[in-house]
Amino acid sequence: MRRHVPPTSALQAFEACARHLNVTRAAEELRLTQSAVSRQLAGLEALLGLRLFQRVRQRLVLTPAGAAYAPQVRASLARLEGATLELLAHRGTGGTLNLAVSPTFGARWLMPRLPAFRTAYPGMMLNFRNYTTRLTPMDFAAEDVDAAIILTGTAAPGIVSHDLVEDARLPVCAPAVAAMLRRPEDLSRQVLLQQTTRPRGWVEWLAEARLEGIDGLRGPQFQNMAMVAEAAAAGLGVALLPAFLIEADVACGRLAAPFSQVLSGDMAYRLIYPEVAEEVPALRAFRDWLRRQAERSAKRRV
Question: Which end of the chain has the lower number of beta carbons within 10 A, N or C?
């Protein structure tokens, strides 16, 4: 047993008692004797060094500590039960993955490739949640997420990271706007569309292009990358966008890339997950497939 993880039987007894506030009903649900449930509760309280219940007129009442602990225990037991049922249903050959994915990357890069994944792994279910930028690292367990595909730099300790697509950005705009951009210096007369997840992108690009006298922070801000691309296509200004995102639009003439100067860096779209999940069969299969897709994508761009 891990040092701070009580036995599952004790947690089940506590959760049932917290829900019923009655040892007899909890014992009936768990198919145990009342004395067995009482011993489980006593052992859990001794292990934690905290009182979880008080008896008031022959009735259980949760202490503040017990009231705070109960919903956490209930959620953890539910996740454990769900994982077990999932394993039994697929006998280890399929499974379900809950993925947090950057919306634009998911829509533009990942979704067109998923039919191939479904063909290769017909028994596996992928659930998707939009990843939003946050100030603190993702808590995979609390958010009930197995892995994430996000734009990120260096991975945090305890997190496995696999590079998928480099965040290499270049200026793009509507063809009519591109016709007015003969030299990079002409950007001084254009609106620079700003993307909030890389707020200094234009400043960095202008520095690499050795352009002075242009304010790289001016221009309207957009949080959603797909919206920035649409604004550029509508002729509202010049955007600095990842090459993978605008390949199809440039190929069909909807967008134009007037300059070849690319802004790179240590940021990339990466698959990340906790080290403890590295040997989960479903995650391992998805990881290997995803890395193969990324390698093929990179070869096509060369």
Answer: C
Phi, psi (degrees; rounded to nearest 5) at 69: -80, -35
Q: Within 13 Å, how many C-alpha atoms sit on residue 297's CB side? A: 19
Q: Summarize the confidence of residues 271-287 as an average pLDDT.
A: 89
Backbone φ and ψ for 242, nearest 5 degrees, come out as -60, 140
The mean pLDDT value for 114-129 works out to: 91
Helix residue spans in 94-208 (DSSP H): 103-105, 114-120, 175-178, 201-208
Q: Residue with structure tokens 């590295």?
A: 278
Quickly tell me which residue has 């270049």 as its tokens.
170
Q: Structure tokens of 226? A: 């797909």
CB-CB contact of 87 with 80 (8 Å) = no
pLDDT of residue 87: 64
pLDDT band of residue 1 (cuts 50, 70, 90) is: very low
- Cα 143 to Cα 30: distance, rounded to the nearest angstrom: 28
What percentage of the chain has pLDDT greater than the value 90?
A: 62
Residue 156, beta-bridge partner list: none
CA 215 – CA 212 distance, rounded (Å): 8
SS3 74: helix
Cα torsion for 76, 77, 80, 84, to the nearest 10°? -160
Whole-angstrom CA distances from 8 to 80, 133, 264 are 10, 35, 49
Q: What is the pTM of this model?
A: 0.65
Closest CA to 293 of 156, 100, 149: 149
Q: Which has the closest alpha carbon to 265: 242, 298, 281? A: 242
